[in-house]
Specification:
By secondary structure, the chain is an alpha/beta fold.
C-alpha cells in the first residue's frame, strides 16, 4: 500500500483543541478529509490553510457520527480509508503496520488497532486475529467490499460501529485486530465544553441507540425485554433525585428515560446537546 492508496477521514465537532495534534501524527503524503459537523467556515479556512493535504467538508449542522463518516467515506477515491476520532494520535509505524497486515490478509473488510480493545482476546503467538467487533475511534476500511454502504444513518451517537461490524459479519466479511498497530486514544475528549450537557447527550443517545440496535437485530419485543429494567430504574432515580434536590442527576436520568421512550415509540434520534 502506498500513500496514494489511503485516505484518512476524521469527523469533528468543536474539536479545535484536538484535531491539529491528530493531523500532525499522520504522514504528510496521505490525503485527509475532515468532516466538521457544523457550518464553521473559520474552522474550515484555518485547517485547510494549515495543511495542504486536508480537505475540510462542512456538514452544515451536527449530523452525528454515522452521517458525517458516510459523507467523508463517500468522497474517498482511494482503495482504503482510515476513519479516526479527532482525539487520536498515530504512532510512527502505525501506517506501516496497517500495510503489513493488508499483505497478510488482503481479503479483509475492516482492521482495527489492538490498544484499548485487545483485553478480551488472546493473541498468543499471533500478530493478527479475527474478531467480531471493533471500537469506532479507529477503523481501517477495504472500500471495495462495501459498495458505498457504510454506517446506518439512523444512529446519531453510539452503536454505529457495533452495527457496522455485525453487518459485515452477517455478510461473511472478515474483521481483524492487529497486535502491533497502536493508535493512542484519549476517549470522550473530542468536545471539551459544557460537561453536563454532554453527559445528558450521552445518556439520551446511549439509551436510544441501545433499543434501536436490539430492535433492528432481535425484534421489538426482545428489545423491550432488555430495556424495560433500565426504563424503570431511570424513573425511580428521577424520583429519588427530585426528592434530594439534585437537579443535575435528575436531568441526566430524565434524558436516559427519554432516550428509551423515544426509541420505543419509533421516533428518530432527535436530541442534540446545547453547546455554545
Amino acid at each position: 500500500m502506498e500513500s496514494k492508496d489511503l485516505t484518512v477521514v476524521i469527523v469533528t465537532f468543536k474539536s479545535e483543541n484536538k484535531i491539529f495534534s491528530c493531523i500532525d501524527s499522520i504522514p504528510k503524503g496521505i490525503d485527509i478529509i475532515v468532516v466538521e459537523n457544523s457550518n464553521n467556515l473559520k474552522f474550515k479556512e484555518k485547517i485547510e490553510k494549515s495543511y495542504s493535504n486536508v480537505n475540510c467538508i462542512l456538514s452544515g449542522e451536527n449530523k452525528g457520527y454515522a452521517v458525517a463518516n458516510n459523507i467523508g467515506l463517500n468522497k474517498v477515491l482511494t482503495k482504503y480509508a482510515l476513519i479516526l476520532n479527532p482525539d487520536t494520535i498515530l504512532q510512527k509505524d502505525t501506517i506501516e503496520n496497517f500495510n503489513k497486515a493488508i499483505k497478510i490478509n488482503n481479503d479483509f473488510w475492516l482492521i482495527g488497532p489492538s490498544n484499548n480493545q485487545s483485553k478480551n482476546y488472546n493473541f498468543e503467538n499471533n500478530q493478527i486475529i479475527e474478531v467480531d467487533n471493533l471500537k469506532g475511534f479507529a477503523i481501517f476500511f477495504n472500500l471495495k467490499k462495501f459498495n458505498k454502504n457504510y454506517f446506518d444513518e439512523n444512529y446519531f451517537l453510539y452503536f454505529e460501529e457495533i452495527d457496522l461490524c455485525k453487518d459485515v459479519k452477517d455478510r461473511g466479511g472478515k474483521i481483524f485486530l492487529v497486535k502491533n498497530i497502536i493508535i493512542r486514544h484519549e476517549g470522550a475528549s473530542s468536545v471539551e465544553k459544557n460537561k453536563i450537557e454532554l453527559e445528558k447527550n450521552r445518556n439520551w443517545h446511549w439509551m436510544w441507540s441501545t433499543f434501536y440496535f436490539h430492535r433492528k437485530h432481535k425484534g421489538y419485543f426482545a428489545a423491550l425485554l432488555i430495556l424495560i429494567p433500565k426504563l424503570f430504574s431511570s424513573f425511580l432515580k428521577i424520583i429519588f433525585y427530585q426528592l434530594t434536590f439534585n437537579n443535575q442527576k435528575k436531568n441526566i436520568y430524565f434524558c436516559r428515560m427519554s432516550g428509551i421512550i423515544n426509541s420505543m415509540i419509533g421516533k428518530k434520534s432527535w436530541y442534540r446537546p446545547s453547546i455554545d
